[in-house]
Amino acid sequence: GVNGDSADNSEHGSGAVYLFHRSSSAWRQAAYIKASDTADSDLFGSAVGLSGTTLVVGAPRQGRIDPDWGGNVILGSGAAYVRKIAP
Fold first, then answer.
1. CA distance to 5, 7, 12, 37, 83, per residue, from 27 (Å)
2. What is the pLDDT of residues 52-84, one digit of tens each?
């Protein structure tokens, strides 16, 4: 989620993204973002893309539940998270 608890390190290696905004000559943190479904070693934030107000964040080791495989988690299948951000 956005602006959650940045001190929560309960999922080692899950990752996070920090957004900063520059106003005049100072930088300030505008947002702290973690995946809504964090898990150990997801590496959320390993890749980040920004185009206009669209943010895309990669988590290359995110596992997903695949119903076609009997509901098993496919480890390391990866995920991309897309979010609109305020200018």
1. 21, 21, 28, 29, 22
2. 999 999 988 887 655 665 555 666 678 888 988
Task: Please give the structure tokens belonging to residue 11.
Answer: 């999922």
Q: What is the pTM of this model?
A: 0.74
For residue 32, give Cα distances in angstroms to 12, 66, 77, 85.
17, 29, 24, 12
> Which residue from 19, 11, 4, 5 is spatially nearest to 59, judged by alpha carbons?
11
Write out the DSSP string of the chain.
-BS--TT---STT-B-EEEEEEETTEEEEEEEE--TT--TT--BTSEEEEETTEEEEEETT--EEEGGGTTEEETT--EEEEEE---
